[in-house]
Amino acid sequence: MDDSRIVELFWARSADAVEACAAKYGGYCQSIARSILQSREDAEECVNDTWLGAWNAIPPHRPQLLSAFLGKLTRRIAINRYKRLTAAKRCGEVNLVLDELAECLPGGESAEEALDMRELSRCLSDFVRALPERERMIFVRRYFYSDPIPTIAGRAKVSENNVSVILSRLREKLRRHLETEGFSI
Q1: E strands along 8-86, which residues?
Q2: pTM greater than 0.85 (yes/no)
Q3: Are 104 and 120 in a shared domain?
């Protein structure tokens, strides 16, 4: 089913919208949640929460790109669940990914208090859009999908060491980009 038709079903408050989303984007959302949570059961719950979140957000929101909207929603739900599950311990790929990015993002008590999130989001989007295709794929797979380095290396058909070096250089490049945009590290 076409995405615009699915969005119209949400606007009409038809339960068919959820079924259509599950049929078209269930695997996509499942892979995002599973990559973050490393648990099929937790990922399934997050995907179900994604459908509820979409139901509550559409309307009033009318997403331009439904796949990106659902992916972002799934990611946010999975990260929040991950934080709850690991509140007492520091482990897993997500913490590793967040630690890697911590060196180039502005500091403070929390990211929310340190800066205007919309401006940072715009700046990050500009940075990612300007990257060459291979570097963009590596960056997004690591820092949006939380893919492990071996998985990214397989997708990019390069060594794990090469992926690590590319990511290190991209973080430094991002840090410099943010500084030129006025974000202090």
Answers
A1: none
A2: no
A3: yes
